[in-house]
Specification:
The structure is a homodimer. Chain A has about 290 residues and is of the alpha+beta class. Chain A has 9 helices and 10 strands. In chain A, helix 1 crosses helix 5 (about 95-115) and helix 2 packs across helix 4 (about 60-75). The two termini of chain A are about 30 Å apart. Chain A binds a DNA duplex (30 and 30 nucleotides) through helix 4. Chains A, B: It comes from Streptomyces scopuliridis RB72.
DNA sequence: GGCATCCTCTGACTAGAGTCAGAGGATGGA
DNA sequence: TCCATCCTCTGACTCTAGTCAGAGGATGCC
C-alpha cells in the first residue's frame, strides 16, 4: 500500500480523534457517563428490546442491565416484559428520558457547530463536502455481502424497494405480474443464490443469480439503495456474482435491462459486458448483455 | 448555522468515531493501556522532561509519575534527574522502549491500512484526498493568533523562515541588510505589534504591524508556513491587523511587496487594497498598496 | 543560611466501563 | 409434565484513568 497514503490517513486519524473524539466525550458526557448516554440514544423514540440494545452496542448483558437500572432510577426509562415473550424485556423512554435525549441531541449539534464555527463560509462548504466524501467512503469500506434466502426479511425489504423504484423509473411503470421475474426458488441454492449488502446490519442493496442447468448464469434484481450509490457497490456485486458463477462452472454471465436504467447500463459496459440479441422475451427489457467469464 | 451542514458533520462524527476511534483503541491498546502508549509515544526518540510530557498530554503529575513507574518497571524507559536542574527529571527510552514504540508505530500504519484496504484504487485516492481536506480545515479551525514580542523564540523562528523563503523566491535573492526592515522595537508596543499564528502550540505564521505616530499603519513581515497555506490564514492576519490598526486610530493601512509574491498580491487585491505610488524606497519592493479603514 | 518556590513522587481515593459466574423466571418442544 | 434453552438480572470482581493532598529533595534569591 502507498506509504504516502498511509501517512495522510494517519495524520487524519490524529487530527480527527483530537478534534472530534475529545470534544465528543466532553460534550456528550457532560453530566452523564457516556455509557448511559449511548444507551439512552440507542433506545430511540419508540423503545427497544434489551437484547437488541445489547447487540447494537456490543455490550455485556450484565453491564446493560446495570446501566438500565441507573437510567430507571433516574426516571428516564421504564423496562417491561414484552407481551409476546415475557423473557424479553422492552425499554421505553419516559417523558423525562425523551427530554434528556433531546438535550444530548442538542449537544451533538453544538459539537458539530463548534467544528464549523471558526471557519468562513467557503471553508465551511469545503469542510462539509470533504466530510461527506470521507463519510461515504468509510461507510463503503464497511459494506459486507452475505448470501441470504430470498424470503429473508432483509431480502424482502430490498426487493420491495427495487420494485417500487422500477415503478417510478420505467416509462410505463412496472407490474411484477407482467415481468419474467424468477420465483424465489430460482434464486435459492442449488438453482441460484441471492446476495444482500449491509452496513451496520442495515440492508442497502441486493443482487440475485440464476444458475440454470447447462445454461449461462443470469443476473437478476440488482438494486442499490439511493443513499448508498456512488460507493462502487454495483461493481462489487457484479464481481462477486461473476466469481460465484465461475465457481459453479459457468463461462457466460448474462442479464437484461431497461433503457431507463442509464447508470446501470454504463456499469455493465465498463465491467466488460457486450450487448447481444434478446435471449428472452422479458417485456420490460430493451437491452440484453453478456460477458464471457473464466 | 446551516442545519444541513450540521447534519453532515454529525454523520461524519458518527462514522469516524466508529471506524477510526474504536479501531484506534483496539490497535494501539492491544497489550498496553492507552495512557502508557500515549506517553511512550510522546517521549520520542530523544527523551523528554517529565514536566513537558505532562504539559503536552495535559495530565496530572501524580498520574504521569505512576505511568512512568510502570514503564520503568517494564524496562522501557529510564528516568534521571536533569544535570542542570536536578528537580526536573528526564525520561529516555531504552532499546526495549524504542522497539515497543516502533511496534506502536507499525500498528498505526496497520490501522490506516485497514481503512484503505477494502477500497479499490480510485476510492482510495478519493478517500485520501478528502481526508487531507478535512485534516487541513479542522487544523485551520484550531489556529490561534497571539501578540508576542518580536524576540520571542517562536517569532524568531518565523522570521528566519521568512527571510530564508525570500532568499529563494526573489529573483536576486534577499539580503536583510539591504532592506528597510523595521527594527524589533518598531514592532513592539507602543510603536507596533507582532502577531504569531500557532496550531497546537507550533508557530505556523507571523505578521507585524508598524504604528508610526501620525502616519498610516504599515504591515510588515507577513509569512505563512508552506504546509499551512490554503487555510485562509493570510486573510485572517490582514483582518486582525486591520482591526488593530483601526483600534489605534489609524484610517489607512499600507504595505509594500515584491513581484515574486504573486499569491500575496492577489490576496491584497481581494482584501480591498489599492495599488499606490511608492511611499518608501524599499529596494526589494515592486508594488505599494494602501487600504482605507474605519 | 534561611525561606519560598519548584518539581516529582507516594498514598489514598473515586468513577467509569466492563467481565464472569451463576440465579431464577419464561418458553417451547418432547 | 418435564427439561433444555433463553433472557435478564445480581453479586463480586478487575482495570483504566484520573484526582487530591501532602512529603521531600533541589534551587534561587535575599
Amino acid at each position: 500500500m502507498d506509504p504516502s497514503q498511509i501517512d495522510q490517513v494517519r495524520r487524519f486519524n490524529r487530527t480527527v480523534t483530537e478534534r472530534v473524539g475529545v470534544l465528543h466525550d466532553r460534550y456528550l458526557g457532560r453530566d452523564r457517563p457516556i455509557g448511559e448516554a449511548r444507551l439512552l440514544w440507542e433506545i430511540g423514540e419508540r423503545g427497544q428490546d434489551v437484547r437488541r440494545l445489547r447487540e447494537r452496542l456490543g455490550l455485556d448483558s450484565g453491564y446493560v442491565s446495570r446501566l438500565l437500572r441507573a437510567l430507571e432510577s433516574d426516571g428516564l426509562v421504564t423496562v417491561e416484559p414484552q407481551p409476546r415473550d415475557r423473557r424479553v424485556r422492552t425499554v421505553r423512554l419516559t417523558d423525562a428520558g425523551r427530554a434528556e435525549r433531546a438535550t444530548l441531541d442538542g449537544r451533538s449539534d453544538e459539537l458539530a457547530g463548534s467544528l464549523l464555527e471558526p471557519l468562513n463560509t467557503t471553508q465551511r462548504a469545503r469542510l462539509v463536502a470533504a466530510m461527506a466524501e470521507v463519510d461515504r467512503l468509510l461507510t463503503a469500506a464497511t459494506v459486507v455481502l452475505d448470501v441470504v434466502d430470498p424470503d429473508h426479511p432483509d431480502a424482502q425489504y430490498c426487493l420491495r424497494s427495487y420494485f417500487m423504484e422500477l415503478r417510478h423509473r420505467f416509462e410505463d411503470g412496472f407490474d411484477p405480474a407482467r415481468s419474467l421475474l424468477p420465483s424465489a426458488g430460482e434464486l435459492r441454492p442449488p438453482h441460484g443464490l441471492f446476495l444482500i449488502a449491509r452496513t451496520h446490519g442495515e440492508p442497502i442493496g441486493c443482487a440475485g443469480l440464476k444458475l440454470p442447468p447447462r445454461a449461462p448464469a443470469e443476473i437478476k434484481r440488482m438494486w442499490v439503495a439511493p443513499h448508498a450509490r456512488g460507493l462502487g457497490l454495483g461493481r462489487r456485486f457484479l464481481a462477486e456474482l461473476e466469481a460465484r458463477a465461475a465457481q459453479h462452472g459457468r463461462n457466460v454471465l448474462r442479464l437484461d435491462t431497461n433503457k431507463a436504467l442509464g447508470a446501470a447500463i454504463g456499469l455493465y459496459h465498463s465491467f466488460g459486458f457486450q450487448e447481444v440479441a434478446a435471449f428472452n422475451d422479458e417485456p420490460y427489457a430493451h437491452y440484453w448483455f453478456e460477458k464471457r467469464i473464466t
